[in-house]
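Hello forum,

I keep getting stuck at the same step: I have a sequence, I want structure tokens, and every attempt I make locally crashes halfway through. Rather than fight my setup again tonight, could one of you with a working pipeline run this one for me? It's a single chain of 413 residues.
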Amino acid sequence: MKAKFRRYWREILIFLSIMGPGIITANVDNDAGGITTYSVAGAHFGYSLIWSFIPIIIALVVIQEMCSRMAVVTGKGLADLIREEFGVRVTFYAMAVLIFSNLFNTISEFAGIAASAELFGISKYVLVPLCALFVWWLIVKGTYKSVEKVFLVACVFYLSYIISGFLSRPDWNEVVKSSIKPQLHFDKAYLFMLMGVIGTTIAPWMQFYQQASVVEKEIKLKNYKYSRLDVIIGAFVVNIVAVFIVIVCADTLFKNGIRIDTAKDAALALKPLAGQYCFYLFAFGLLNASIFSACILPLSTAYSVCEGMGWEVGVNRRFREAPQFYTLYTAIIIIGAAVILIPNLKLIPIMLISQAANGILLPFVLIFMLLLVNNKRLMGKYTNSKIYNIFAVLTILVMIGLSITLLLASFIK
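Reply #2:
Ran it on my machine without issues. Output:
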């Protein structure tokens, strides 16, 4: 009995030392844009979209697991592998689109910080620069271990949405029924919202960041099962949080006939309906998510571009050792924060541009991934099985279809 207990305890300790990349990457998916999408989904359609989070979990696990597996087996990031296998020219164009997309996504995250500032009665001209300085200092002055610990703590604060969900006192029988029994509608608004909810699941930066962070953490093949568990837990946690965002908005705003356009609107509308504590928890969740994502998105960009161009990369390196890495990271933060401080800025065009860039890049990234993970020269016996390939291809086809549809819908009214 003691030997079995020691073995279990040893397994837990190993997992705790390995976990991070999967959980962190998945949780960043609940950024300011994601929170807005889920808030609007709950406020406009009640519980009727909750069922969609089950296939979302499957899609996230399938895609991100392949990234982790490639990282552990090859010891290289995704951009590095694309450059080696498909050439510098292809990599250059992919990285150009990624920089463009992530820059506008970062601007959206600082917009979330500005919205949070207004909710807490703080000037955005104070909070946005302070947050920009914090995320810059965290990466430039930290190491991978210290940065990862901060990111994992940030993941814990997503619990604020779960707590706010319980405070709204939903009908749990109705929630469970909606989860296992799809409520399909075929009107344009419902279908567009469904595509939006599923489409926020996987963005191009996620694959680059997760694979790069697994490489930098130096996770070995013998410990891969723990890395896979990290991916699975991350997929479940991020979607549980998303479900609770939908629940709190469905149980308060939808039932009272209140419709919203942003996460900020949701927080303000919750105050008289669900109480001050629920309002503050929701607003704090938005601030935490925005700061977290404003740090990860520039970091993902720096990882990807520097890997693709063959430059030195990594948080464990100092500025003089990886000047391109830190310069790009710094530039994206400065631009992202500075744009939000422009008076009377319209954010809708920025969000449409970032969504369009994601829609253009994602199909290529997913196809590259599938080709790489099935390359026996690279992966040896760790290529996809036939069954896994079927799931992967179906997932990728669905994600590509959604990306193209959302891209077209963004510009066709």
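The mean pLDDT is 83. If your local run keeps crashing, start a new thread with the error log.
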